[in-house]
Write a structure and sequence with these properties.
The protein is of the alpha/beta class and 241 residues long. It has one domain: LmbE-like (Rossmann fold, 3-Layer(aba) Sandwich), CATH 3.40.50.10320. The protein contains eight helices and eight strands. The chain has an eight-stranded mixed beta sheet with strand order 1-7-8-6-5-2-3-4, sandwiched between helices. Helix 1 links the parallel strand 2 and strand 3. Helix 1 packs across helix 6 and helix 2 runs antiparallel to helix 6. It is globular. The protein starts with 6 loop residues before the first strand and ends with a strand.
Amino acid sequence: MTEQRYEPLDEDWQRGLAVVAHPDDLEYGVASAISKWTSEGKEFTYLLATRGEAGIDAMHPDETRRVRTQEEIDSAKVVGVDTVEFLDYPDGMVEYGLPLRRDIARAIRRHKPDVVVTMNFEMRFRGGGTNQSDHRAVGLATLDASRDAGNRWIFTELNEDGLEPWNEVKMVLVGASPNATHAVDVGDHIYRGVESLEKHDIYIKGLGRDFDPEMFLTMTANAVGEEFGCDYAVSFEVFAL
């Protein structure tokens, strides 16, 4: 019997904000957990730093921007998310810094989430693959902005815009982290996750290689599930605030 590696995630909260770099980032696993949470009545908003316009080599960025924006909106609806916002940073050139932290902190003050979700900001993924620069910049900025949002003396222009500090983010959940500590049993919501990833059809085809969303997601979630004691699970690194 496999020793349980992960602890159960605290799911006693109501509102979540997911902040990632690109359309499709959430759909490689985290969307299955979001589907579970929205089915239970939790509210989620997506905030994307870019529109993924540099992601398809054979397509002009203007067309890619349009296509990937719509694919993300359609994908979010599959898992019960109706609000998808974009910061319009340049794809592939997102820099960690004060402007990015400010924009994310602004969104946190507006949406007032209990939990913020982002993606791995380490140099590598669990399997050893090298992480991409936009992921690292946005993930780390999201962690920092989750604390910035509660301090009225950081980004004081947000106060002037009528956005009061929000210091009720109880934790930041980091998906696809090599340092994951907790997991969520997603059960049949894995198939909602598959459907949400399949909505990125043009992007996936544009990668120019064979990729089976169902095989990828079920195998990944089953591997986590074996270490958590269920069929399918999604893991997170947890930062309590």
